[in-house]
Design brief:
- By secondary structure, this protein is of the alpha+beta class.
- It contains 13 helices and seven strands.
- It has a seven-stranded mixed beta sheet, sandwiched between helices.
- Helix 3 packs across helix 5.
- The longest helix is centred in the first third of the chain and has 12 residues.
- The protein is globular and about 50 Å long.
């Protein structure tokens, strides 16, 4: 059954079936989007672009295995009682609730896609940008400012934030910092060699063991650095085996 759904996704991508046929075959677990996101980000990106906006958002949530309460907390905070927020993300366009740019940008940061992919219905541009960070990024004056944030992220429940770092060369770089119960995941976008070196120094100042690698985004040709930190290598291995299956080589910091 799982293989059948994956084949249906590929048929939809190639125009052999329509979206209604593809979507109607799903149960609660969209196995194939998890598999594509972990093994073939480019094909996953093609699938996302072909889907209508509500189903594109749903596929992203499914691929990241986020529970409704967990995602609502990430988008609205610990004390939100807006129970319909996540289901409203799935509504067809003509019934769609209007979300703020800040909320949608945070959704884009969480799911590692450009802002227009979670904002715009219909065709979206195959180009990476940092509009998410314009709306929801937190400004840092230097790379060293990430160190206390890394230490705060240890042993926390799932949390995701985006940061805009002003480098010494007056070029901005961008960081996605995700904490989970036993790992921390850090993405570095638009990095020069100096900002990459500064981030790695910051990571090494923590008590975690870190593995790093270059990640392919959902946009062909756009790559960025990802670092996974944990107390135990088994936690890093688990994330690699479930979410980054296509990565062949990593480096130890």
């Amino acid at each position: 059954m799982k293989e059948d759904i994956l084949q249906l996704a590929l048929k939809f991508i190639h125009g052999e079936i329509d979206e209604i046929t593809y979507i109607s075959r799903h149960d609660r677990d969209w196995y194939e989007v998890k598999e594509l996101a972990a093994t073939d980000p480019i094909t996953f990106g093609i699938l996302l672009r072909k889907l209508s906006l509500p189903n594109r958002r749903r596929a992203l949530i499914q691929a990241f295995a986020l529970r409704t309460v967990e995602l609502r907390t990430l988008l609205l905070g610990d004390f939100s009682d807006s129970s319909s927020t996540i289901s409203d993300l799935y509504h067809p366009v003509k019934y769609r609730r209007r979300f703020t740019n800040e909320l949608l940008a945070q959704f884009g940061i969480i799911h590692r896609v450009p802002f227009d992919w979670v904002y715009k219905d219909g065709s979206v541009v195959e180009r990476w940008n940092f509009k998410n960070y314009d709306f929801s990024g937190i400004a840092l004056t230097c790379m060293e400012a990430i160190i206390p944030l890394l230490r705060m992220a240890e042993d926390r429940n799932r949390d995701v934030n985006g940061y805009v770092v002003q480098t010494s060369t007056d070029q901005e770089c961008y960081i996605r910092l995700e904490s989970r119960a036993d790992v921390v995941v850090v993405d570095l976008y638009q990095a020069d060699l100096l900002s990459l070196d500064q981030l790695m120094s910051a990571l090494k100042s923590t008590s975690f063991t870190w593995s790093g690698f270059i990640t392919q985004s959902v946009i062909p040709g756009y790559r960025y650095w990802t670092f996974i930190g944990a107390d135990h290598e088994s936690a890093i291995a688990r994330i690699m085996e479930t979410e980054f299956k296509y990565i062949q080589n990593t480096m130890r910091l």
